[in-house]
# Entry
Amino acid sequence: MTDERSNIRRIERDRSRFSEIVRGHIKRDLKKYVTGSELIGRKGKQLVSIPVPRIELPRFRHGENGEGQGQGDGDADGRGQGGEAPGAGQAGEHAGQHLLEVELSLEEMARILGDELALPNVQPRGRASVDSLNRRFSSMHRQGPHSLRHMRRTMKEALKRQIASDTYNPDDPVIVPVVDDMRFRSWKDTWRPDHAAMIMYMMDVSGSMGREQKEIVRLVSFWIDTWLRSQYHSLETRYIVHDAVAKEVDQDTFYRLRESGGTKISSAYSLAADIIEQQFPASEWNIYIFHFSDGDNWSGRDTERCVSLLRERLLGGANLFCYGQVKSAYGSGQFKKDLDAALEHDELVITEEIPDRDGILPAIKSFLGKGV
Amino acid sequence: MAAIGPEFEAMQAAIEARARQRGLDVPEIRYELVDYRQLNEIAAFGGFPVRYPHWRFGMEYDRLVKGHQYGLQKIYELVINTDPVVAYLLSQNSRLDQKLVMAHVCGHADFFRNNAWFAHTDGNMIDVMASHGARVRTISDRYGIDAVETFIDRIHSIDNLVDSGAMARARGRPGNAPPLDRESTPRDILGHLAQQGDLSNWQRELLGLLRDEAYYFLPQMLTKIMNEGWASFWHSRLMTDDLLHDAEVVDYADAHSGAMGGDEGPKNPYKLGIELFRWIAEGHADEGDGRTAMEVAFDARRTHNDVTFVDRYLDEPFCRAHGLGVSSEECAKARHATVASLANAGQPIIERVSDVADDELELVHVWSGSELQLDQAEECLRHVQALWGGAVRLFTRLDGRDALLSIVARDGEVAREVGERSDAA
# Structure
């Protein structure tokens, strides 16, 4: 039994070939997944579960048209040699025939995204200032679950004990491990220095930002998050919403909140600057700032204030400042023009228009395409 | 994989002795004890421990393992039609499960040995499958996994284009597949492609191997209801007459009804099959020729396949007794519907027209009451064309009209011509 388990069984090769094919499909339809909302809701701790259409080879088969009864359960694979067998639990055998749930780690999802958009790896600034935990199964314990039993070590211990206690007979080399001989694989924690990074998300939640606009922001943020998380082991995120005043909120509120009223972008920028200055010194953190709005601001005066806030307090320490302008029915789109005019030569500043969901991928590419 | 150990060996001997007393022709059966992953692996491989590498087996395995983990389904046992018969038992099965499964396997083994449609199957199929696997691996190493996989995908798409009626032509050599040194029969389109398709050597060899496998599985597809019915009929007889201890009755009834439950009629092969065999064994189908009811049942399991079996024995009294219909018309309809769904193992019948130019391939979809699923049929036609090389045409019906699908060149478009509305049914 043990021998067979230690080898990679043939079916596992077929299975990984199958998942390669599925990943290929995901890659091909990446845009669909990036611009669709269903993925975010399916985010688990480490895995996203993606529904992909069941991969099916075409066959000559009976269709719907015709006066006949169509076909029975043809099962041309010839599976189940007369034997899926007596017993309960047959129900549900054919459930979910048409959708296949594929579980991908977020890291893998990020890799697919990175491959597709040809995103460069991030070059972190500064020194590696935080410790990140690295857990490896590299040590041996006397207690543990049987699934982690180290057979060879256990037998060796048993042999040692038997030789020492003179119960070992070379002519009849029977070794019987007792509880004390058992050895189990175990992990060792190592800490290694790492770069710290934080993302500051800001969003305009004034009356003109509708559901669809927020959904787009949510999607862009999700993918930015996914990508940057694959680049940094530890990543902090902070969320700010603003209309005429700004406040810091948690992630959930960030996406759900609907306020109304005017828009004073400077309020958000000044709050962001406060938070960053107090909690995330640029010497130790890689700082990414994203702001989304529909491009309407209270006044030209406030926009000027924004520009000076950016110049004086935000851009100095940041790796990147990205502004995504989501098109809405009411937005004038003036803010992006003003930003571009004022900060044209600043390499850290990227502004993008996101007219609709199709604009999501290009925006992500342009935001993250510099690798800083 | 492990041997079953002395306790189960004794159980096996006792069960087989009873089965033989009752008239079953039980050949040598070799049991292997496997865990659910191994069992699912073997099930994904179509019942065999080793197959050629292909992603579809991986997909099936994925489905089975998830189904098992989510508690949606459980395979108790798998039987392979070889000599000796090999059966895999799930090691987690309870003692009662194993007893039930062994009794069930006796029925399958007897069926494999005696049903006429299995007369030509290769008793050595485990080795044959393994050697096919080795061959495909060698070919993949040489010509590239992608090329080989694409080619196998094509064949999988059309591996129902085989002729169940031609299996007897294989007489005198191992395997069900009709020999390729004679002209292939009109429905043996895989054979025709293997003989005359525009293929390189390795492609021709691969097509031959996969055709052999398709023919190996064919008898099982033709006798699903009978095979399951017969095995269930016998496990139920053996268990309730002889083998059950008092303490096991309730659990047995639970397991048995779990498998038989669900749909009446043709949807559950276990259920329809066992009821038909019970019907015969109770003497409802006596022919008045002096045979006992049990002899009639044994003869039926020898000579019929699902279509002829249902056509012959799903008669009006049976139909009424099992609530499939009341009036004569309803019963006739129920029978016809079941037979139609079983015809050609549920696959459309497609034939080659023989009097055409050598470089052309003309196919006819033999009308049996329903149209082809168009998008998939077109896709399959492309695959046929790719294997054939020249122009391929398929006569069929679309929306009640005669139609001709044709494709001239590789990766070309499938042209569709639709004729007048035809009234023929």
